[in-house]
Write a structure and sequence with these properties.
Layout: H1 2-16, H2 19-22, H3 31-55, H4 77-99, H5 104-126, H6 136-156, E1 162-167, H7 177-180, H8 184-190, E2 195-201, E3 217-226, E4 236-240, E5 243-247, E6 250-259, H9 269-278, E7 285-291, E8 294-301
Antiparallel strand pairs: 1-2, 2-3, 3-6, 4-5, 6-7, 7-8
Helix pairs in contact: 1-4, 1-9, 3-4, 3-5, 4-5, 4-6, 5-6
């Protein structure tokens, strides 16, 4: 459940504070920028946690601190959401510290650490919630997402594989709107059946610096689920008129194309910023779906 809220913040964070996209990095350490970035990150951390405490956590019953094993729920879609969210947080923070003149590898390490720490704060708050608790699985995926960012920066000084998100209306929220969402915005955050998480990359440029294939054309691998209305994956049966509907959850894997907007050559800083902002979302393209139901071709999948 936590990543539904975190998703809002990773989008806002990536869109609004990526100074590296707008300005040239300092080649030497800039003390004033570093102090400013540190204050900003601290304020964003404390402010968002305080806001969530007021608008979210206060609405739920509290208990003593405890752990909660939710690794089996939603066929790990929420865990993948944590991974993608933490990757975006790590990247945004790392870029800011590199903009301030900190050594690239050091900045990326700070960004990864910030992401792990920030996301762990949510887990600490969840530990006192009577409906769930502190999840070691969430912590593990938060760490994996942060390391996915840091390892690419450490090895290649760039993100060859970018993590993205897409959403479509699955139509299933109507059966459990209290859990899966009652409107488009809540469904985008709550309905895992409509969410897909993607790893977008151009495999050609892993091996050569130039190619006839444009660098902005990517291959994309996706993961999603379908027909799941309960977190534990149990079968959902409901009556619709004279018919009985049965929903048996299953996993979906996708192969599609994508556009890496950051690789499109533009010179204007504001346009670079815009392209970087929209690059957190997977572009709709035809896709192949692989599942227990076989292989299906989706002419237009989002």
């Amino acid at each position: 459940m936590k990543n539904r809220i975190c998703g809002i913040f990773f989008c806002c964070f990536t869109v609004s504070v990526n100074a590296q996209t707008l300005f040239e990095n300092d080649t030497v350490f800039n003390k004033s920028r570093t102090i400013g970035v540190s204050i900003f990150d601290a304020a964003a951390w404390g402010g968002s946690i305080g806001a969530l405490q007021f608008v979210w956590y206060d609405d739920f019953a509290k208990t003593s601190f405890h752990t909660f094993n939710d690794n089996y729920e939603w066929q790990q879609m929420d865990k993948v959401g944590h991974l993608v969210t933490s990757w975006n947080f790590a990247r945004g923070s790392g870029d800011l510290f590199e903009w301030s003149g900190i050594n690239h590898r050091t900045a990326s390490l700070i960004g990864a650490g910030y992401s792990v720490g920030y996301m762990a704060t949510f887990e600490l708050l969840d530990g006192y919630n009577a409906d769930w608790g502190f999840s070691w699985g969430d912590v593990a995926y938060n760490t994996i997402g942060s390391l996915a960012y840091w390892s690419q920066e450490f090895l290649w000084n760039q993100q060859y594989a970018k993590l993205k998100f897409s959403f479509h209306n699955s139509g299933l929220a109507a059966y459990r709107p209290d859990v899966l969402g009652a409107d488009f915005t809540s469904r985008a955050l709550k309905d895992y059946n409509g969410q897909t998480y993607w790893m977008s990359f151009n495999p050609v440029y892993w091996f050569k610096s130039e190619s006839k294939i444009p660098a902005w054309i990517n291959l994309s691998l996706g993961y999603g689920i379908e027909d799941q209305l309960y977190g534990d994956g149990s079968v959902y049966v409901t009556q619709s008129g004279n018919s009985q509907l049965t929903f048996v959850p299953y996993r979906q894997y996708y192969l599609s194309l994508d556009i890496d907007f950051e690789k499109i050559p533009v010179s204007k800083p504001w346009l670079k910023f815009l392209l970087r902002a929209v690059n957190v979302v997977k572009v709709p393209f035809p896709a192949l779906e692989f599942s227990e139901k076989g292989v299906q071709f989706k002419p237009f999948y989002f």
